[in-house]
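In the laboratory, one determines a bound structure by crystallizing the protein with its ligand and collecting diffraction data. In a computational setting the workflow is compressed into a single prediction: the sequence and the ligand go in, and a structural description comes out. We illustrate the idea with magnesium ion.
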Amino acid sequence: MTAASQPTILTPDEPGIARAAVILRGGGLVAVPTETVYGLAARADSDEAVASIYEAKGRPSFNPLIVHIADLAAAGRIAVLDERARLLAERFWPGALTMVLPLRGDAGLAAAVTAGLPSVALRCPAHPVMRALLEACGLPLAAPSANRSGALSPTTAEHVRASLGGRVDAIIGGGACELGLESTIVALREGGGWSLLRPGPASETEIAALLGPQDAGASVAASIEAPGQLASHYSPGKPVRLDAETARADEFHIGFGATAGDASLSPSGDLAEAAARLYAVLHQAAASPMPRVAVAPIPGEGLGPAIRDRLSRAAR
Ligand code: AMP
Ligand code: MG
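The predicted complex, in structure-token form:
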């Protein structure tokens, strides 16, 4: 399809999902709402379909994709699950936790999904539309965020249309994403250790309560293993200054709590609300005439570290 044409907008109901499943089974690209952000889905077992995800996003081929599955049984057909994986799945699935696990030899995925790594990232999502789509397709779906590589993640169908437009075959409209932040990514090591590759809605504290403390030196391992986490990311396309109580004359000020700003992540200082609104407010900052962005301080508890992680990448 040409970049000039516009994607079909599908309704998040049975006919819309059935139509999306036909497109996906045929090797097409469909943007779909999830509880984290909108995903750009393609069948994970097709080299061509997976290649078109990288092409539509302009994503570097060394940055592997998360594979979405309907349940633990489907996960077990793709990756080697141990007791720790079962514990995490029981606690967090369906939901916003991605596990990096040893890839099975007979997984049947396109090689590009894992960027040639011997591991695979798996998530069982909770959003009813994404779950219905997985069921209707009967296939694992590779799905990174539905935006051009390096740009802001989409939390509405309109964000997807503005970023990818005619590069996708269809978008399932499903309203704003509830969590608004990408999943937590945990790598389970074959030797018994684990490390957090990306902070997110599933907290490190809760994971450590189940698995024990994270590996020492984990962040070094993560930087080698998940190259996507290294690059500047989530960029509004202009300089971003963090921990700004006040703004300068040329800055769009993003507020939080007592700091009102030009737009607030959460006037009441609620971190869940701030996470859900983060990308919408960053999109607003990107669209404003101001050449720079300043962001109020965000506290370090609860969802704070995940929000600060995205903001610090936006500021790089
Ligand atoms: P995104 O799809 O943009 O939300 O990002 C997915 C993230 O998962 C990327 O940063 C990848 O580097 C990471 N990832 C996916 N598969 C693996 C893997 N097998 N090992 C380590 N990290 C992975
Ligand atoms: Mg992304």
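The chain has a mean pLDDT of 94. Keep in mind that any predicted model is a hypothesis to be tested, not a measurement.
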